[in-house]
Design a protein that fits this description.
27-stranded mixed beta sheet, alpha/beta, Leu-rich_rpt_typical-subtyp, Disease resistance protein, 48 strands, Leu-rich_rpt, 1144 residues, disordered N terminus, Leucine-rich repeat, LRR (right-handed beta-alpha superhelix), twelve-stranded parallel beta sheet
Length: 1144
Amino acid sequence: MNSETGQASAVVSSAQLSEMVVDQVKNNPKFQKTAEIILQNCGNIPAMNLFIAETLNNIAESEGDDWTLERALEEMASYCIIGRTLEDRIISLMRCGFEMLPRSDLALINCCWHSRQFFRKNHGVHYNVLITNWILEECFGLIDHFEKAYNQGYRILMKLIKCGLLKIENDNIVVMEKLARDVPDGRYHGFIWKPSLGLSGVYEGKNWLGLESVGHADGMIRTCEKDWKEISVLLVDGNHLCQEVIETYFSTLMNLRVLAVFSPRIKSLPISLTKLGNLCFLVLKDCDLLEKIDGLESLKALTVLEISNAKSLKHVPSDLFKSLSKLRSLNLSETGIERLPSSLSTLRELRSINLRGCCCLTSLPMLAKLRKLQLLDVSGATSLESFADKSINALQDLLLLDLSQTLVGHVPFLKDLKQLSRVSYRDCKKLIRLPNLRELSGLEVLDLSGALKIKEIQDNTFPENNVLKILDLSKTGVSCLPSSIRYLSNLELLNLSEMLNMVELEDDTFKNMARLRHLNLSKSPVENLPSLSGLANLRELKLHECSKLRTLPSLIALEKLEVLDISGCIFFEAFEDESFSHMTNLQLLDVSETRIEKMPGLSGLENLSQLLLRNCINLTKLPPLSSTKLKELDVCGAKNLREWEAELPEYMNQLEILNLSATRLRSPPLNNYTNLRELYLRDCELQMPLKLDNLTNLEVLDLSRTRISSLQTITRLCNLRQLLLTDCSDLHEIPTLEPLVKLEALHLQGTGIKKFPCRMAMVTRLMHLDLPDSADTLGLDWTGIKSLPGELNWDQCGMPSQLQNITNRPFMIVRNLDSFRIMKGIPDLWNSCFNKFFISVCPLKKGEEEEDKEIYELQDGTSFQDIYFHVMSYHVEYTPFLEIRGFESFPTGLEDALMKVEYVSLVENGFITSLSELGNANNLKGCWIWSCPNLENLMQEDKDNLNLSKNLDQDNLKFSENLDKDNLKLSENLDKDAKLMDNLEFLWISNLPILRSVHSTGRQFESVRNLKQLYVDACPQLETLFKSSQLSKNLEILHVKFCDRLKSICEPKEGCTLQKLHSLSLVELPELTDIGLKLPSLRTANIRNCPKLGENLHEQFGLKVRVEGDLTLQVKVWITNLEANELELLERSETCTSLIELKV
């Protein structure tokens, strides 16, 4: 083809491409030229054109999020000329499009790269198979709502089809474009880097195990058979199973082939599950309670097994893998296993082993016979010291080897593993020597970061013909780079940061690295850098805290540079270049904490979004700023800047963060920076009132230590979250803060303000408040306050008299636990708060745009505190009271409060597994526990101690004499538990999905001798409430309702008399057959919908006459008998001698 013909063809093809893009792309000055370059170098391929067009359209619609349209067009033009062959250039351009996927849509990126991996081994699948695989591989993270996950998968599927990466064919079969399948995953942490299951290689032929027929229904994903017994695929949440009888739930599902349970609340595998002989996939994610997997060996058809995040699982049965000969994928990540049985070595079909985060694992069995193994990930196995294999050369299919964060000192030989593309020894702190890598011809990623003991890399480590793209040597002990570094012509990322022994680099180090995009030398002791003239494709140059670096080589060749960071280079004084105008792509320029006196010209930096010049104390002049895309400007501490205010443009519409603190600024023109979110003017020499009324997006305003005297326009800043006025001594008043409904921090200390500008109840989100004087002097109005500031200088302002005089005890929300630390040092304040308020502690939630919705107050202001307390059977005399709500981990800082309060309410707390979590709460008289999903027993079980005692025989006397510290510690914990329950009089528990017993198997629950009131509601796993020996004889009120499996109140073989119980309520207990109690003082009984109790209810209450019929009729007869002849019925009762009222 001659040049004229080629140009004509390109024009025609570029016209076709222009028809696919939106007007904003088509009208961009750079589009036509880029389109012609693409089509000249890559040809006219419809699938490629569609993908490129949709990529540009998406960038145009979300302009400024990740890419600008100009940068994207320039990047595509540069990518499409990389490669010697047409195919290479097409793949390079497609890869460029992959890298432009929106970073904010992580699920889309994960699904895209997963599909690229999946379709390399599977030609076409039903779209349901693909979506289900995305869910199982955690492309959306851990799932808590299946309908939402499925819909998200469908959304992403449609996006990938629209952009041409996927195509949908007949019968809803999805395939991936070949061009997309061939794109190399060159990201640092590519999808293949961290798979969950590696499902792409586990299917046989087109046998999709029924996944093509799934849909979402009833809070789960399953196949859509009408008959429940026929379903073959089930993805279900553990909370759903808590509502079922787990031991028998799977007994009717014998056709099940795929089972995935997310967050199962089980300690061992249900027997019904271990009998699913047709099961091929068993996926149990986030099994934080699982302790045993006995019975798993009977699932002989398994090809995929995942049991993840089971920290309590310590042991794998020794013969397990002998039975699972078909296993192809094994995921035991984040478990507590200490060793794997040798039978693992027999799994000849195994493709993927994921042992990520198994921190107790100390060794691995032989792997050499697993010849089909592709993925081996033991990263985070921080106790792993050795491999059984000296060589894994037989694993010719191995793609990934990740030994990160292990204690391995010697690694197996890696010889001639041509498929191996990624190797990581990150943070292997005992690794001494790197194995020979010369014959790893497919190696693309090598990560040695943090391998401190590696001092040398052999000169012949890298062969001439290599495809290495990523090399990370950061934090190693290497003192000089190997000579073979010059062969790394395909390198795209080189990380040499924190290599403290490397003081010098050869001048030609980067000579052959024309494709290098990311270079990091941060915290390096080098004094001079090699020439950078060959790095025309460099995007990032990071030299942060290179404390000995004084100069930089010429940057004139770095036209594509996007990030330049030399912050913390304390001896750096000047750039060689007078202008950065050639760096039109530069987005971040950080020169903070250097000795620079003059900046190069910045006039050509049209894409600059961050300019950081913090503490550049020698800088005297700021160059003119012309970038219309500047989002952050920070010159804090540049105290020698003179007469530079005129250099600030009148309009910077994109500017979001402006820090001018500690400069000589006097009258900045800021009111036109309408997009500003953060403005810092601390320590500025302001000489005139600030005009800020147009800055309605402002969230942070710092005017501390300025001479500001008026803030009249502050009321217009309705999005303000932080108002910092510390030491503004000339400021004597501020307008009302009531319009600032989002205000979280207010600093007034050191001001001249004499009166607080609004009622405290109006600033409901206030987290931090610094007052200049006592609260009473300021005239603070605390009327109607619902929330204490998280931090308040109580020690200086004191307890307001208004709070001291409160008599109606309102709820007080505390979101910052520092309040308790401060109050602890002020006893009067501590006692006043707990005696005057019902204190509720909630976690601090960030990023919520709407005002918090308090549970105690409806939006119309109508209080339902009385209703709330009625439901909880709460009485006003229960004080001091503390509610802990919504914490996933123990709220550090509450320890002292828990030691002093007498009544505690625990609501929606994930950290509660037993009341032992409350520590030394020995004054506890009343406890409410509501919707705590991980609470299984009220107190820590001492079964291990009991079992130990039972098993001590004559042969174990030596063992008995050497009881270790762990058992002593357990005994101490049980004593603490006993003390914690000693004073308990009131216990109310509700909606606890996995609570199995109110009693405990050991001695400590016998200490609940003072319990007077017990309320149990919606605990579906309870079968027996307690044993008679463990029941308080002082119990006066017992109310139990909505416990679907409860069979007996007290074990009947140990019948118990409760002399003081006068109120009994049993409601909606469908399995209750026995009460097992004698109640001589019973005065009120409310028994409803307990159908199995009716047949012998007369015996339960000591009645001599049996009444026939259903329970409702029986009760009506008894009521009739009571009305007709009350004395006669009471005479017939031997147990309930004081029964006055029996309700339906």
